Backbone:
């Protein structure tokens, strides 16, 4: 697919968010920082988050909310920077709130029901100002965590475990009407859909292992990463190993848009009429852009 390179030399970029001034906010996981990329491709550190900042979203107060996975070990192979296992200096995962004007970083949540968050990965706000987020867990030499889906309030007053366990949940998004929630599982390469009964409420919830409907389960060993939803309700899932974006319709049909990085990790929409897709090619440290066939879904809050 034809694309333009916006920025180079990024340290495993993820979590892109387009801002109205034409810049893109993203994280550099391997550098532990939140970075702003100008429309001209210049980069500026907004905040040092430490650990492993991952997903990003703008909240109702105009601050950036960051899923921090606690960090990885890192290696390079074939010109690609690659994340690995839980690092020796790992101190846990968290949800952080970042003041974009001052760079101040605040830990909003680091546990739920007395259990530490392990590797928060991605988040999405609903119209009420609450947010869904996934905890991907961490991998060690001979074992790995089970992950889960959570719902929390932006003021730090409430966090609940909505679905547990899940197998390395990653990208999370809402349908245009807010009635369906989508979650991508990385290792299984599956996209799940849950109907919602209200803010933070899974419809007809019957307890643990309520895994929802499998909306897509592509063949070929694809691994699913983060996602964004377009205005037509298609779920655009960044796909690793088979690098690119897998576009899934609300009915489950899907097709693939290839990009030249097996570690294609995330997508957001911006530009005029939200017709420009910004995509993180993380292994090669690139932020790229291209024109998309369908406008993106506006986020609940933007600046």
Residues:
């Amino acid at each position: 697919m034809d694309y333009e390179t916006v920025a180079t030399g990024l340290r495993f970029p993820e979590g892109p968010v387009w801002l109205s001034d034409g810049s893109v906010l993203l994280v550099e996981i391997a550098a532990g920082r939140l970075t702003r990329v100008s429309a001209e491709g210049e980069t500026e550190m907004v905040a040092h988050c430490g650990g492993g900042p991952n997903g990003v979203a703008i909240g109702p107060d105009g601050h950036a909310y960051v899923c921090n996975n606690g960090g990885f070990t890192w290696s390079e192979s074939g010109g690609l920077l690659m994340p690995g296992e839980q690092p020796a200096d790992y101190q846990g995962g968290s949800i952080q709130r970042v003041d974009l004007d001052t760079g101040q970083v605040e830990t909003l949540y680091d546990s739920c029901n007395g259990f530490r968050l392990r590797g928060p990965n991605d988040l999405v706000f609903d119209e009420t100002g609450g947010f869904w987020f996934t905890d991907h867990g961490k991998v060690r030499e001979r074992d790995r965590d089970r992950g889960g889906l959570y719902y929390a309030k932006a003021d730090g007053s409430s966090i609940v475990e909505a679905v547990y366990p899940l197998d390395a949940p990653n990208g999370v998004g809402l349908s245009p009407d807010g009635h369906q929630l989508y979650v991508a599982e990385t290792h299984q390469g599956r996209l799940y859909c849950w109907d919602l009964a209200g803010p933070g409420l899974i419809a007809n919830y019957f307890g643990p292992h309520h895994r929802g409907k499998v909306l897509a389960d592509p063949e070929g060993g694809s691994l699913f990463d983060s996602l964004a939803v377009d205005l037509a309700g298609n779920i655009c899932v960044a796909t690793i190993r088979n690098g690119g974006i897998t576009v899934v319709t609300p009915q489950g049909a899907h097709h693939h848009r290839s990009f030249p990085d097996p570690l294609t990790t995330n997508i957001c929409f911006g530009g005029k009429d939200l017709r420009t897709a910004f995509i993180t090619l993380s292994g090669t440290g690139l932020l790229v852009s291209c024109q998309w066939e369908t406008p993106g879904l506006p986020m609940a809050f933007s600046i």
